[in-house]
Specification:
The protein is mostly beta strands. The chain is built from 2 helices and 20 strands. The strands form 5 sheets. It has a 7-stranded antiparallel beta sheet, with no helix packed on it. A 5-stranded antiparallel beta sheet has the order 9-10-11-17-16, with no helix packed on it. A 4-stranded antiparallel beta sheet has the order 3-4-5-6, with helices on one face. It starts with 10 loop residues before the first strand and ends in a 14-residue tail after the last strand.
Length: 361
């Protein structure tokens, strides 16, 4: 990074009345971004609401009229996951013109678990003590003396200890199912405030599928990896993907066939997506079979990191795809192409908040 925190020349401009207007430096813009993020946190989802964050500058650049500063953020303290990123556009007069969350922190800690089972155990013990006291007070004899009361039998109270989920759940894969173009497991989300549908679909290698917004397709490329096609930019209903990256982590595996490996930064939890419209969506520019393609690894992949749940925009809808696993238990043939299990969520037109979307089985 260019050293711009030393002595920098102050820049001035003049108003129509001839008054000098001072410009802030890139280092001051970087500090302003950190102050703004600390005083007014961005939309980090329900999981990180009111969680103190650690900020660090990871990238910045200067244009003629403004600075672009990108900060990473993660929960304070020990954190072994991947930090999120937020980008700031700061005018040289010192005004934050725009800010946008590029990605959320992934991994690095489990959920907070309820303590209600332990509290229930303590209440039960309190009830037993109270009942014993009542028996003592009501057990006095005719002479007014307190009669002997046998001590109550101690009742063991089970203490329920919540078991945190593993970081990488083992998916239950379906063997050689019959492909159905329209998912039969779609269900309206009437049980929550979210308006949309969700379900699970199984799609064979190199087949197309539609969850309600348009055409999708994928093809395999090694064990538990493959290409997700975003369609031609000029074709009907192309897919725009949030957080497209220059390379996928799974593209570095030695057993991967040669080819382009653009990736993406996805979600770790569907309920972290509170405003899908705030993300940056692009069309994968790498051509593969005349279509833009992203390289992915399923949740069952080994030797590289799963990119998370893919967030997309298509035909006025926002949606999410979760690549669960590919059934590669039998040799791949044209008569037996490997099927992939995908969990999916699709919002109604204009719906951006997925924080109340239910989990798929």
């Amino acid at each position: 990074m260019v050293e711009d925190q030393g002595k920098e020349e102050e820049k001035f401009d003049f108003t129509g009345e001839g008054e000098a207007v001072g410009y802030i430096s890139l280092a001051q813009a970087r500090l302003l971004a950190m102050q703004t993020e600390g005083e007014t946190p961005g939309n980090y989802g329900r999981r990180y609401q009111n969680v103190p964050m650690f900020f660090e500058s990871v990238e910045d650049s200067e244009n003629e009229d403004y600075y672009v500063v990108t900060l990473s953020f993660r929960p304070q303290g020990d954190f072994s996951g991947i930090p999120g990123q937020e980008q700031f556009f700061i005018e040289k007069e010192g005004t934050v013109a725009r800010r946008q969350v590029l990605s959320l922190p992934r991994g690095g800690g489990g959920r907070r678990f309820p303590v209600s089972p332990i509290a229930i155990g303590l209440v039960v013990v309190g009830v037993i003590v109270a009942v014993a006291a009542v028996f003592v007070l009501s057990g006095s004899g005719d002479g007014g003396e307190v009669g002997a009361v046998p001590a109550p039998t101690e009742i063991p109270v089970p203490v329920v200890v919540p078991i945190p989920p593993t970081d990488t759940p083992k998916p239950l894969l379906m063997r050689k199912p019959t492909y159905t173009p329209t998912p039969t497991t779609a269900a309206p989300m009437s049980e929550s405030s979210f308006s949309g549908t969700h379900g699970t679909i199984v799609v064979n290698d190199s087949a197309t599928f539609n969850i309600g917004s348009g055409r999708f397709s994928w093809s395999g490329s090694g064990t538990q990896t493959g290409y997700f096609y975003t369609g031609s930019p000029t074709g009907p209903n192309p897919v725009l993907v949030a957080g497209v990256t220059p390379a996928s982590d799974c593209g570095n595996r030695q057993d991967r066939p040669p080819g382009p490996t653009q990736g993406y930064t996805g979600l770790s939890d569907i309920n972290d997506l509170t405003d899908a419209s705030s993300l940056i969506y692009t069309h994968a520019s790498t051509d593969n079979n005349s279509e833009g393609a992203l390289y992915f690894g399923t949740k069952a992949v080994k030797g590289c990191n799963n990119e998370g749940m893919l967030v997309f925009s298509q035909a006025g809808h926002y949606g999410v795809l979760d690549f669960v696993g590919i059934d590669d238990s039998e040799p791949w043939t044209t008569e037996n192409p490997w099927p992939m299990t995908i969990n999916w969520w699709l919002g109604d037109p204009g719906v951006t908040d997925f924080s109340q979307a239910p989990d798929n089985p």
